[in-house]
Amino acid sequence: MLVEAPTFTETLLTFRKQGANCVGVPSDDDGIIPEEFERMLKSRSVRFLYTIPNFQNPSGRTSPLERRKEILAIAAKYDVPIFEDDPYHYLSYDEEAPATYLSLAGDDRRVLHSNSFSKLVAPGMRCGWLVVPDAIIPHLNAFRISAGLTRPAILQLGLFNYLNNANFGERVGFLRDTYRVRRDGMVKAIEKHLKPLGIKTNYPKGGFFLWGEARGVDDMTAFARFAVEKKKVGIIPGSAFYTIDEAKNGHDAFRISFAKVDPETAEEGIKRLAEAFREYGK
């Protein structure tokens, strides 16, 4: 199977557990690079493509509409299904997310679409939904049972009652307003403390994550350990989000999450991170 490079580390672990061979497709700030995707389809047998098109974990990137159309056309040309994982779809802070692969595919039933209530209701929910062709529902049910049974019935009933009684639009609006403040606070702190050091970060338009690159740091895992021990601030090394064979590609990269961080804490945390970068290796 093909995945974005980088991609969500827990996805890699989950698919490997089921025996999958995960291969990363090179990506840029707009997501999967179409030419690279097609090149890989020409050279190997691929079961499906896994992608997080909106505010991706870990990179925070969003694939624009035209890029999605290109990827979908290539997938149709080589008859490859797309697994669209879209848990951050509703968490857009500047503009609405582009049309999903599912909606763009229309009657072409090659797209499996998933989303999560854990980002919209409560993190502990660990409950979501899938939109798939009817023909594969029995296979998915069998896989669900073999992979870990199901969510507790009381949790599902509680979620059902909540959704029947809550104003979903108001809930999404509240989440957007809350996370937008945290995103902006983190970006402001980065501009103040990390940018002067030459550290490159992106600007996510939604979701929870920023992606950074620190040229000159050869081992981000070692640096992350140093930052935790010396400055009590945590980042995730970029290598964690690549396949085993491609981990070297993230040697100077890192992920930061702003989901739980208010602007005041972001200011202090990024200040400490900048101090760690200045002191590392001395």
From TrEMBL:
Ranges annotated as spanning the membrane: none
SUPFAM superfamilies associated with the record: PLP-dependent transferases
Keyword annotations from UniProtKB, A to Z: Aminotransferase, Pyridoxal phosphate, Transferase
Keyword Transit peptide: no
Enzyme Commission code(s) on record: 2.6.1.39
Keyword field contains Manganese: no
An example Gene Ontology molecular-function term: pyridoxal phosphate binding
Domain Aminotransferase class I/classII large, first and last residues per copy: 2-273
InterPro entries from the UniProt entry: Aminotransferase_I/II_large, Class-I_PLP-dep_aminotransf, PyrdxlP-dep_Trfase, PyrdxlP-dep_Trfase_major, PyrdxlP-dep_Trfase_small
Cofactor(s) the protein needs: pyridoxal 5'-phosphate
CDD domains (alphabetical): AAT_like
Signal peptide: none
Pfam families: Aminotran_1_2
Example GO BP: alpha-amino acid metabolic process
Annotated protein name in UniProt: 2-aminoadipate transaminase
Organism lineage: unclassified sequences, metagenomes, ecological metagenomes
UniProt gene name: lysN_32
